[in-house]
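ERR on first pass: missing label on line 2. Operator R.T. fixed the label and resubmitted. Corrected input:
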Amino acid sequence: MLGLMQDQPLLISSVLEHALTAHPRSEIASRTVEGPLHHCTYADIGRRAKQLANALTALEVQPGERIGTLAWNGYRHMELYFGVSGMGAVLHTINPRLFPEQIEFIANHAEDQYLFFELSFAALVEQLAPRMKTVKAFIALTDRNRMPDIEVPNLLCYEDLIDGQSSDFDWPVLDERAASSMCYTSGTTGNPKGVLFSHRSSILHSLGLCTSEGFGLSSADSALLVVPMFHVNAWGMPYAAAMCGARLVLPGPALDGESLYELMRTEQVTLALGVPTVWMMLQQHVETRGLDPAVDLCLNRVVVGGAAAPRTLVETFETRFDARVLHAWGMTEMSPLGTVCNPLPRHRDASLAERLDLQAKQGRALFGVSMKIVDEEGAELSRDGKASGHLLVKGPWIANQYFRGEGGSILDEAGWFDTGDIATIDADGYMQITDRAKDVIKSGGEWISSIDLENAAVGHPAVAEAAVIGIPHAKWQERPLLIVVIKPGKKASKEELLEYLETRVAKWWLPDDVAYVEALPHTATGKLQKMKLREQFRDYRLAQE
Amino acid sequence: MLGLMQDQPLLISSVLEHALTAHPRSEIASRTVEGPLHHCTYADIGRRAKQLANALTALEVQPGERIGTLAWNGYRHMELYFGVSGMGAVLHTINPRLFPEQIEFIANHAEDQYLFFELSFAALVEQLAPRMKTVKAFIALTDRNRMPDIEVPNLLCYEDLIDGQSSDFDWPVLDERAASSMCYTSGTTGNPKGVLFSHRSSILHSLGLCTSEGFGLSSADSALLVVPMFHVNAWGMPYAAAMCGARLVLPGPALDGESLYELMRTEQVTLALGVPTVWMMLQQHVETRGLDPAVDLCLNRVVVGGAAAPRTLVETFETRFDARVLHAWGMTEMSPLGTVCNPLPRHRDASLAERLDLQAKQGRALFGVSMKIVDEEGAELSRDGKASGHLLVKGPWIANQYFRGEGGSILDEAGWFDTGDIATIDADGYMQITDRAKDVIKSGGEWISSIDLENAAVGHPAVAEAAVIGIPHAKWQERPLLIVVIKPGKKASKEELLEYLETRVAKWWLPDDVAYVEALPHTATGKLQKMKLREQFRDYRLAQE
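pass 2 clean. output:
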């Protein structure tokens, strides 16, 4: 027997319509490519998103067709988020930091019909346009006076495109499972694979962000999105902010420490979201200039995701910024949010050290994400905070396959998705990633966590970056090798580093050797490429004890 | 083109499973009929809900069958919430305060298969059992030693029923639109009508409660549910609390001021939810005893719903309890939450008087509830805070018909549900109820709000309760008559009352006369019965000017 409730689909257009009636005057502040800071409201975004939807309709864009973007975080990108998905097409945000060949592959694989691009990427578009086979026109996200002087067939101007269009648009009532946006994962191997989000998954994920156990996002927040809108929908924040009326602060292309600090100060940012690297630059800026962020800013919480938050980073935010770190974890395949490290009442009186121990964990699952750890045979492991195993997830905002079925089936028989991570889960549900499955070091039948070792090593004042890989060992099967990049002007001997680690990790985890390098290899999105590192150290031999 | 996300239904069982992994140790404190305070965890609730599900399966309860309850707020009722809905049956919570004939009608109309009842209602069950045609057994919510001595066929004991059952149960993967629970509305006319909630509507509604723009419910809360679990699922709180890990405090049958105050103090309640009447009793207790709630309690916010929150009530909570009032509005047909009066950043520096003005409004719609006001012809009215009209709503947790189609179609052609309320909506989306459509007074072509007049009148120190109805008038069509109940030992002349109102409402709204009564007629759920009042004053004549 079915319930007798209204059959109203969960649609991205309904988020915008909600914003237009429940908090139309909440603001979006954007730093633009052109330079000046731009302020508008959700009412403005709504009006222009509807003009855009009319323009796309005039261009005969069909439901389900992909519309590409190469753009920074800014109000026009917001308009695309709502206008494109709202009218039934699929917003395909492309990471402009990828190699040109990857961008070409992605746009062709997705069969993008139109490509909206920021002026920063004019030269890139000029270079790639001839090879983007399906793109019917390229639209520069600017006004007529600033159109770039490039040779591109069917070059259009965004402001001209929407100018004169009606700001009335009847959003279609779509199937909530319809595709709304897509994002390619930049795996460390093979071609990027497309994840196709639905209206339903985006709405449920956004609700999760607005709950207190998520980011507790609310209309009281002024939220700085350092995480790019081309990266998993900026962790879903544009939708979530429109849902609850949070003020958005969009930094455009300027992501250096000084620019971010200034923006946080002038736009009274309460919540900021980004990857550790960005926050390291911000802290570096504060350090160098001798600033007092606890006084200058009204920063309340910082979401750190994309990679594990180093303990020193968390500590600096807690002590110098007077801001609480929300360690978060997810993947493109998960929309992306899986867990947030929110404290429980029992942690209320925790000391700083205890809080930092807790913050080192990736957190508890949001409602909507089921999580378990299993051994090599798939048997579920105990939630005791000690047993570590393959982390599997399940839920309505988790992918069930990649676009066009690339990579084949990605769920097991019971519908679980293997995250590729190795993790522990404790009795309170806090999950902690200990490694990537492919990076784990197997020593004497036990696992050594390369991530724990790396996090401990970067705590040393002379270490800029660290990586740990497993090196074959006759007796132990594998033993860890610590590879470090030393900060300019600093020094740290092998003995000193190992001594430093001795009090921080289990004795049998201590690396057998330390290698010094100028730089570590990264992907275009900043992920450490351990595969390249393993390749590089293929012939490395450890002294066999 | 559909998105490629997992097809995971939104089910009540998944809320429980989430609680069991994300916050198994969060507590539920219950005051029991038997007397003592009972403490357990979500892990305990989960274990026993699964035992119950096994017991229901053994009783051959089929998917969609209704299971009735006559119970207070307590842990066993929680177990029924999750066990019954989780295993696919429909939890039918019956209001024990209804007249026995209404309870009989409701149980028969719903075709309840089993009836779980609290010891308080043993005599009632004994009286009604022979007339409850579909009920196969009556289960007393107690243990063997406390079984009531009543003549009821197929009388079972709850603890015996679940004892020995396995605490493993594989929840069925239901259609998320399947019915999960039902509640009858006690309309002021005709037979009660059943509202049939679905798993989907319950989950979406709960997510709304957990968002910062809802109640901001979180694991940091200790939430006192004064609103009964037999009244629209206690405003959805049992699900929402399990979703986010909030501690629940369930007061059982003791709802007097002293009991509630004591519970708030000992259980460190941060959030309390109930109707104005209950809060008036609590404030009376504080007044009489000369207590200092700001010191004794850690109450942070109070949700007032079910009827408009009088200004004096809001003020007392703000000033004497140091608690923020969340004025909320909804209906059984809306699961029930429609709006919450949360402030916007612009209200941050508001004075107490300004805050009270804002708190008088019912608030902004949650994401998921669309709202508009229309005139008599159905044309949408302006959101200017002035125009008032019929309040229509739409959304995934709003009913599309009553059980068995009673009352016929309840949506208009575009799918809007008429709430029967008259309201204004302002530019920031704040809605304020000005009247019930059937209670509005039409004077000279304009509307006079009986609710505004009543709220103003109860502000007078001598007035215990007030009602305003329209009386036919030759010239003006209708004019307001103020009907008051005076507090024991107090006095207020007609002239004094009208003078008091003069500075508080528009001059042309001033009642033409004042009538004094001993008591006002109410429904079993405490709603003012204006129809009876109009009947009572049918022959009343105003002096015609």
